[in-house]
Automatic annotation (TrEMBL), chain A:
One Pfam family in the UniProt entry: PP-binding
Keyword field: Fatty acid biosynthesis, Fatty acid metabolism, Lipid biosynthesis, Lipid metabolism, Phosphopantetheine, Phosphoprotein
Protein name, per record: Carrier domain-containing protein
Keyword Repeat: no
GO cellular component, one term: membrane
Organism the protein comes from: Tractidigestivibacter scatoligenes
Gene Ontology process terms (BP): lipid A biosynthetic process
GO molecular function terms attached to this record: acyl binding; acyl carrier activity
TrEMBL record, chain B:
Family affiliation: Belongs to the thiolase-like superfamily. Beta-ketoacyl-ACP synthases family.
Signal peptide interval: none
Pathway(s) of this molecule: Lipid metabolism; fatty acid biosynthesis
Domain Ketosynthase family 3 (KS3) per the UniProt entry, residue ranges: 2-411
Protein name (Swiss-Prot/TrEMBL): 3-oxoacyl-[acyl-carrier-protein] synthase 2
Group of enzyme by EC: transferase
Function, in words: Involved in the type II fatty acid elongation cycle. Catalyzes the elongation of a wide range of acyl-ACP by the addition of two carbons from malonyl-ACP to an acyl acceptor. Can efficiently catalyze the conversion of palmitoleoyl-ACP (cis-hexadec-9-enoyl-ACP) to cis-vaccenoyl-ACP (cis-octadec-11-enoyl-ACP), an essential step in the thermal regulation of fatty acid composition.
UniProt key word Acyltransferase: yes
Active site: C164 (for beta-ketoacyl synthase activity)
Reaction catalyzed: a fatty acyl-[ACP] + malonyl-[ACP] + H(+) = a 3-oxoacyl-[ACP] + holo-[ACP] + CO2; (9Z)-hexadecenoyl-[ACP] + malonyl-[ACP] + H(+) = 3-oxo-(11Z)-octadecenoyl-[ACP] + holo-[ACP] + CO2
Keywords: Acyltransferase, Fatty acid biosynthesis, Fatty acid metabolism, Lipid biosynthesis, Lipid metabolism, Transferase
One Pfam family cited in the UniProt record for this chain: Ketoacyl-synt_C
One GO BP annotation of this record: fatty acid biosynthetic process
Length: 77, 415
C-alpha cells in the first residue's frame, strides 16, 4: 500500500527539521514544535520535490493538517 | 587599573587533530595533515591536494537540524566554541555575566560551499529552488552569530573579515576590548571551510595554490622550491579573559596576550608590498604595545604560506622590525607546513601554537623545508620541534587585500 500524503509530509518534517522525537498529528501546530517561517518554507520546498508539485511561495500552513491538505489539493488538480 | 588579558580556554578542529590539545600534540610531533582531496572529484583541476579535517561528524556533535542549517564553517566554529568554553570553565553556571562575554569569530570566505550549492540550484531549478537558509548559512558573520546564540554571549560581537589575517585581527581586537574594559571574556578566533570546487579553482587561477600533487612536498614554507600554498580548513577559538576575572575563579592560564599590530599595505589586492613595510609596521606596533625586549628569547609562528612572495617578504619584515640580530636569534616556524592554510582560521591556530609553545617550552617545526633559499635565511626550525626557553612569542598574519595583523603573547609567570 502506498504511503499516505500525511505519512510523507511527516517524514519530511521529521527528517529535515529535527522533529524525530516529536509526535506529529494533523492538529500539531508547526510553530509550537519549533518550525519558524524559514523552516516552513524549507519544508514546503522539500514537498515540492517529493510530490512533483509547485506550491504557492506565499503559502504558510500553520498545522500539519493544513500542510497535508495543501499538498493533497495540488495533487488532485 | 591596567587590565591584563590571558588565554584560559582553547578549542580547535584542524587537519591534524579534532581538538585543541590533539592538534597541538600533532604540531609538536611534526604530523602532516595534507593529503589528496577527498571532498570532491578533482578531475580537471590543476590542484589535487588539501589539508582536510578528518572524521568530522557534525550530526553527532550538533544534531541534525543544526547540521542541515549551518554551513560547514559554522559547524566547525560551533564545535570549537564548545571545546573552548568547556576547557576554560566558563560553561559553568554563573562563571561569567553573559553581558560581559563576547564573540569575535570571523571567516575569510564564509559559506562558500553553501553559495556554490545554491547557485547550482538556482541555475538548474530556477529562483524558487534556492533555500530559505541560503543567506543565513552563507554570510561570513554567521559563525559569530551562532556561537553567541549557543553560549548565550550577550556582550560585544565582531566577526572580522580580513582574509588570511581574520583570526589574528579577531584575537587582537578581542584583547583590546577586554583590556579597555568592554568585556571580561571573549571567544576569539576564526573558521573556514573552503575546500570546495569553485574555491579551489579560484585560488588556483589567482596563482596562490601549489599544483604539486605530492602531499609530502606540496607545502614547504621558506624552501627554495616552494611554489604556492595548500588549502586547509577547520576552526580555532580561544577564550581571552581579563586576568583578575580568571584568577578569581581559579582558571587555568595558558599564556598572556600583550600586544597587537594592525596595518594595511595599501599596495595590491593579492601580492604583498615587496618592501614589506606593512608587515614591518604591524610587528613594530605589536612589540611596542607588548613592552617586550627584542633581545629576549622569542618564538615567531610565521604566516609562512609557502608562496614565493609571502615567505620572502615576511622574512624581510621580521628583520626590518626586530633588527638583524634579534631576527636571526628568534625561533621561527610555519605550522602551515602541517595544517595547510586555514585562511580565516589560521591566525587563531597559530596564536594557539604560540601560547602552547610558551606553556610547554617547545617550538613546533616547519616540516618539508629541505633546501634553503637565500632570501629566507632565518632559523625556521626545519623538520623537528626544538626546546624553547624564551618568554615571548608572536604570530604574524598577512591577508589578501593587504591586511597585516600581529599578536604578541608572553609566558604567564604569575602575578
Amino acid at each position: 500500500m502506498a504511503e499516505s500524503t500525511f505519512d510523507r509530509v511527516v517524514a519530511i518534517l521529521k527528517d529535515q527539521e529535527g522533529l524525530d522525537d516529536v509526535e506529529l498529528t494533523r492538529d500539531t501546530n508547526l510553530a509550537e514544535v519549533g518550525l519558524d517561517s524559514m523552516a516552513t518554507v524549507e519544508a514546503v520546498m522539500a514537498c515540492e520535490d517529493e510530490f512533483g508539485i509547485e506550491i504557492d511561495p506565499e503559502a504558510n500552513p500553520k498545522t500539519v493538517g493544513e500542510f497535508v491538505d495543501l499538498v493533497d489539493g495540488l495533487l488532485a488538480k | 587599573m591596567d587590565r591584563r588579558v590571558v588565554i584560559t580556554g582553547m578549542g580547535a578542529i584542524t587537519p591534524v587533530g579534532n581538538t585543541a590539545e590533539e592538534s597541538w600534540d600533532a604540531l609538536v610531533a611534526g604530523k602532516c595533515g595534507i593529503g589528496t582531496i577527498t571532498a570532491f572529484d578533482t578531475t580537471g583541476f590543476r590542484v589535487s591536494v588539501a589539508a582536510e579535517v578528518k572524521d568530522f561528524d557534525p550530526v553527532a556533535a550538533l544534531g541534525k537540524p543544526d547540521t542541515l542549517h549551518n554551513d560547514r564553517n559554522v559547524q566547525f566554529a560551533l564545535v570549537a566554541s564548545d571545546e573552548a568554553m568547556k576547557s576554560s570553565g566558563l560553561d559553568a553556571e554563573g562563571a561569567i555575566d553573559p553581558e560581559r562575554l563576547g564573540v569575535y569569530v570571523g571567516s575569510g570566505v564564509g559559506g562558500i560551499g553553501t553559495t556554490e550549492a545554491q547557485v547550482t540550484r538556482c541555475n538548474e531549478g530556477g529562483a524558487r529552488k534556492v533555500s530559505p537558509f541560503f543567506v543565513p548559512m552563507m554570510i561570513a558573520n554567521m559563525a559569530a552569530g551562532q556561537v553567541s546564540i549557543r553560549h548565550h554571549a550577550l556582550g560585544p560581537t565582531l566577526p572580522v573579515v580580513t582574509a588570511c589575517a581574520t583570526s589574528t585581527n579577531a584575537i587582537g581586537e578581542a584583547y583590546r576590548a577586554i583590556r579597555y574594559g568592554y568585556a571580561d571574556a571573549i571567544l576569539a578566533g576564526g573558521t573556514e571551510a573552503a575546500i570546495v570546487p569553485v574555491s579551489i579553482a579560484g585560488f588556483t587561477n589567482c596563482r596562490a595554490l601549489t599544483t604539486n600533487p605530492d602531499p609530502a612536498t606540496a607545502c614547504r614554507p621558506f624552501d627554495a622550491n616552494r611554489d604556492g600554498f595548500v588549502m586547509g580548513e577547520g576552526a580555532c577559538i580561544l577564550v581571552l579573559e581579563e586576568l583578575e576575572h580568571a584568577l578569581a575563579r581559579g582558571a587555568n592560564i595558558v599564556a598572556e596576550v600583550c600586544g597587537y599590530g594592525n596595518t594595511a599595505d595599501a599596495y595590491h589586492i593579492t601580492s604583498p608590498d615587496p618592501t614589506a613595510c606593512g608587515i614591518t609596521r604591524a610587528i613594530k606596533q605589536a612589540v611596542a604595545e607588548s613592552g617586550m625586549d627584542t633581545d629576549e628569547g622569542l618564538y615567531i609562528n610565521a604566516h609562512g604560506t609557502s608562496t614565493k612572495l609571502n615567505d620572502k617578504t615576511e622574512t624581510m619584515g621580521i628583520k626590518q622590525a626586530l633588527g638583524e640580530k634579534a631576527a636571526h636569534a628568534a625561533h621561527i616556524s610555519s605550522t602551515k607546513s602541517m595544517t595547510g592554510h586555514m585562511l580565516g582560521a589560521t591566525g587563531a591556530v597559530e596564536a594557539m601554537a604560540c601560547a602552547c609553545a610558551l606553556r610547554d617550552s617547545v617550538v613546533p617545526p616547519t616540516i618539508g623545508l629541505a633546501e634553503p633559499d637565500a632570501d629566507c635565511d632565518l632559523d625556521y626550525t626545519p623538520g623537528h620541534s626544538v626546546p624553547f626557553d624564551g618568554r615571548w612569542a608572536m604570530s604574524t598574519s598577512l591577508g589578501f587585500g593587504g591586511h597585516n595583523a600581529v599578536v604578541v603573547l608572553r609566558r604567564y609567570e604569575g602575578e
